[in-house]
């Protein structure tokens, strides 16, 4: 009788559940549940994707030099200290496998992205959840939670699903005050949506204990293709490259991402359209009496009177063909996370929420 059992911690992982994309019996839906770019990738990225059909029989680049160079130029970072992965999810898991493990602790925050906990448990480490203050990461609470077993601290800035930001001076103070064995990971999946924000790139350059992760899944509209990157001190990037599979990204991923990052006009159009519609949505929701925090990302966290109202609203939106995200799993049971879609989708979802609230009166 075989006794094949997984490593400790693995069965504590609740499998990740992605944003719903279908509604039973409905041919057409508006999906506002996964923070995708409603306009998709740029035409130049689509063309690059198509061109790579001629390279499918060849193994891809192992060092990702062209993509790293393009990221370096556009994001003004040193390409030698960039690592590319299968979504930023892969960079997050590399960090956990390389720096955490049995007997160590990985800090994430109360409403933090669920992959931090999943990857920490996958590496055999103990995830430690730290409270936030009114849905904003609390740097002092993180410092108090550090022990001599802490190895990694994960902060998404802007946060998901909150959309809030921790001021950079707080992050700088945190980086300067962490115990020596702790690596701070700044997850900038939504950094491009926060105007003028570098995701923490300059901080990475001034310290040896800070790493930044970024993605092509959001602003660049390539969630389906799975490309992310990390930027960190040379010794950290060297360590991560040792555990990276040599062919972790296909040539299709690499060339499409390169074209996407170089199309800065398109990225800027997506960014500014998101900012315009996000401001409109926040104002319209507030007028309906739905509370929001200032969002710096491509979604809005709508807070309802309570869990029952949030759930009833989500169910009503489904009857209207609108999919938004329940975030009870992120300890926000009274809230719904709504991706900023194109203008008709934003208008439809706000109108439907208004109808729902009227029907409740
Ligand atoms: N970090 C945060 C905060 C996210 O919201 C996401 C995507 N939901 C990711 C990382 C992972 O993104 P990807 O793997 O698509 O790059």
From TrEMBL:
Q: Does the keyword Cell inner membrane apply?
A: no
According to UniProt, the reaction catalysed is: L-histidinol phosphate + 2-oxoglutarate = 3-(imidazol-4-yl)-2-oxopropyl phosphate + L-glutamate
- UniProt GO BP: L-histidine biosynthetic process
Its keywords, alphabetically, are: Amino-acid biosynthesis, Aminotransferase, Histidine biosynthesis, Pyridoxal phosphate, Transferase
| N6-(pyridoxal phosphate)lysine: residues carrying this PTM | 218
The UniProt entry, under Pfam families, shows: Aminotran_1_2
Pathway assignment reads:
Amino-acid biosynthesis; L-histidine biosynthesis; L-histidine from 5-phospho-alpha-D-ribose 1-diphosphate: step 7/9
Q: What is its EC number?
A: 2.6.1.9
- Please state every residue range assigned to the domain named Aminotransferase class I/classII large: 28-353
Is Transferase tagged as a keyword?
yes
Kind of enzyme, top EC level? Answer: transferase
Q: Give an example GO molecular function.
A: pyridoxal phosphate binding
Whom does it interact with, and what assembly results? Homodimer.
Q: Which family is annotated?
A: Belongs to the class-II pyridoxal-phosphate-dependent aminotransferase family. Histidinol-phosphate aminotransferase subfamily.
What the entry lists under NCBIfam families is as follows: hisC
What PANTHER family does the annotation carry? HISTIDINOL-PHOSPHATE AMINOTRANSFERASE (PTHR43643:SF3), HISTIDINOL-PHOSPHATE AMINOTRANSFERASE 2 (PTHR43643)
HAMAP family linked: HisC_aminotrans_2
Its name, as the record gives it, is Histidinol-phosphate aminotransferase
Species of origin = Rhodovulum bhavnagarense
What lineage is on file?
Bacteria, Pseudomonadati, Pseudomonadota, Alphaproteobacteria, Rhodobacterales
Gene name of this polypeptide: hisC
């Amino acid at each position: 009788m075989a006794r094949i059992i997984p490593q400790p911690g693995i069965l504590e992982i609740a499998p990740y559940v992605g944003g719903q994309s279908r509604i039973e019996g409905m041919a057409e839906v508006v999906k506002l549940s996964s923070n995708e770019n409603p306009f998709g990738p740029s035409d130049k990225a689509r063309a690059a994707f198509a061109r790579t059909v001629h390279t499918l029989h060849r193994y891809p680049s192992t060092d990702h030099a062209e993509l790293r160079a393009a990221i370096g130029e556009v994001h003004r970072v040193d390409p030698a200290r960039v690592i590319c992965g299968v979504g930023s999810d892969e960079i997050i898991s590399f960090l956990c496998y390389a720096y955490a493990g049995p007997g160590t602790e990985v800090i994430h925050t109360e409403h933090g992205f669920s992959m931090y906990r999943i990857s920490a448990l996958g590496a055999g480490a103990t995830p430690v959840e730290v409270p936030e203050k009114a849905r904003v990461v609390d740097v002092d609470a993180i410092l108090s939670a550090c022990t001599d077993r802490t190895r990694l601290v994960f902060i998404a800035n802007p946060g998901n699903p909150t959309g809030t930001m921790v001021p950079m001076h707080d992050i700088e103070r945190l980086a300067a005050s962490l115990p020596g064995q702790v690596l701070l990971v700044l997850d900038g999946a939504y950094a491009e949506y926060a105007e003028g924000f570098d995701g923490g790139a300059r901080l990475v350059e001034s310290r040896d204990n800070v790493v930044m992760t970024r993605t092509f899944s959001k602003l660049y509209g390539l969630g389906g293709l799975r490309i992310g990157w990390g930027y960190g001190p040379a010794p950290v990037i060297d360590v991560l490259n040792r555990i990276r599979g040599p062919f972790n990204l296909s040539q299709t991923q690499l060339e499409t991402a390169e074209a996407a990052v170089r199309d800065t006009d398109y990225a800027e159009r997506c960014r500014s359209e998101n900012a315009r519609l996000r401001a409109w949505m926040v104002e319209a929701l507030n007028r309906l009496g739905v509370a929001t925090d200032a969002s710096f990302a491509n979604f809005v966290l709508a807070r309802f009177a309570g869990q029952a109202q949030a759930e009833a609203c989500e169910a009503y939106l489904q009857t209207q063909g609108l999919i938004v995200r329940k975030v009870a799993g992120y300890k926000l049971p009274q809230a719904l996370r709504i991706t900023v879609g194109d203008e008709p989708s934003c208008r439809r979802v706000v109108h439907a929420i208004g109808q729902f609230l009227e029907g409740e009166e």
